[in-house]
């Protein structure tokens, strides 16, 4: 099915190259050997994502992304919702001295990589995740 959709929660969000972005996301799943059913990206504010973080993960802090894997089984096509705080993306881009768009792409693909089984809790897992993000971003920029 390969359905990729984009939504705004509590803030306006516009992305000009959605067709290219969707193709890139789908290709990332394919490159990782995963079957995508559907993935919905919901762009929101810090406060909106903080409420989700508290309600579903019992975490009381801001984050840039929360990924929910809604797949029926481990081997079924991936079904997911990915919430991204535009406020965090903007702040992170500034703090990391990178562009807003590059940071947004990194966060978007970060969610995909989590759904493909990559973790980021340990130092080695974070390193591999960052490597995969960079690899995928380079493919988007081709």
Quick recap:
With 142 residues, the protein is α/β, with parallel strands linked by helices. The chain has helices at 18-31, 46-57, 86-95, 100-115, 123-140, and strands at 3-8, 36-44, 65-69, 78-85.
Low-confidence stretches: none
Task: Kindly name the structural category.
Answer: alpha/beta
Strand % is 15-25%
CATH architecture: 3-Layer(aba) Sandwich
Count of separate structural domains: 1
Q: Shape, please?
A: globular
Radius of gyration: 14 Å
Oligomer classification: single chain
Distance between the termini: 25 Å
Specify the CATH homologous superfamily.
Answer: Metalloproteases ("zincins"), catalytic domain
Helix content range: 40-55%
Order of helices and strands: EHEHEEHHH
The CATH topology is given as Collagenase (Catalytic Domain)
What can you see in these coordinates?
23% of the residues are buried. The chain has one domain: Collagenase (Catalytic Domain) (3-Layer(aba) Sandwich), CATH 3.40.390. The protein is built from five helices and four strands, in the order E-H-E-H-E-E-H-H-H. Helix 4 crosses helix 5 (123-140). A four-stranded mixed β-sheet has the order 1-2-4-3, with helices on both faces. The chain has helices at residues 18-31, 46-57, 86-95, 100-115, 123-140, and strands at residues 3-8, 36-44, 65-69, 78-85. By secondary structure, it is an alpha/beta fold.
């Amino acid at each position: 099915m390969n359905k990729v959709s984009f939504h705004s929660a509590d803030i306006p969000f516009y992305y000009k190259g959605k067709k290219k972005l969707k193709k890139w996301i789908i290709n990332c799943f394919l490159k990782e050997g995963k079957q995508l059913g559907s993935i919905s990206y919901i762009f929101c504010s810090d406060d909106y994502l903080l409420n989700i973080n508290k309600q579903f993960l019992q975490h009381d802090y801001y984050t840039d992304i929360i990924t929910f894997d809604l797949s029926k089984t481990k081997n079924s096509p991936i079904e997911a919702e990915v919430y991204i705080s535009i406020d965090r993306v903007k702040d992170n881009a500034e703090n990391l001295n990178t562009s807003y768009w590059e940071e947004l792409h990194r966060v978007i693909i970060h969610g995909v990589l989590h759904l493909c089984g990559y973790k980021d809790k340990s130092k080695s897992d974070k390193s591999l995740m960052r490597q995969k993000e960079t690899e995928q971003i380079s493919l988007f920029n081709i």
